[in-house]
Design goal:
134 residues; DoxX family membrane protein; 0% strand
């Protein structure tokens, strides 16, 4: 049975999402690691009983694994997509914390950029969900 046009568009969107996740994860693990620590709210270290660096490293590793999973595990797209959407929701408090405290991170050095970033989370969640529903 031939693939529908919508299916091809979802595949491209899923590949782009995978690329974004892997790139973001690598930045959390390498050059951006120090800058991302300031995004982690203080309460998260208490809740998770660890330090900010460990949270940044863990989130980076999760991003890489989810991105690779989207490409390497085609039968699991729906589950991985739901997990990516949940991950985007889970990290949103860090975005709010960054905006409220005015702390800069890689690519987010102005109040306006930090504020606009808040409104990108919902499209990311929708992207993760939509691109993995076939």
């Amino acid at each position: 049975m031939p693939r529908r046009r919508g299916s091809a568009v979802r595949s491209v969107a899923r590949g782009a999402l995978a690329t974004l996740l892997v790139a973001a994860g690598i930045s959390h693990l390498t050059w951006g690691r120090r800058g991302y620590r300031i995004v982690v709210p203080d309460w998260a270290t208490t809740l998770l009983r660890t330090d900010k660096d460990a949270i940044v490293v863990a989130s980076g590793a999760v991003e890489v694994l989810l991105g690779v999973g989207l490409v390497a595990l085609p039968r699991e797209h729906r589950r991985i997509g739901a997990t990516v959407a949940a991950f985007f929701v889970a990290v949103f408090p860090g975005n709010v914390h960054q905006w409220r405290t005015g702390r800069s991170a890689p690519g987010l050095s102005t109040d306006r950029a930090r504020f606009v970033r808040l409104f990108l989370q919902a499209p990311l969640v929708a992207w993760a969900w939509w691109s993995t529903r076939e």
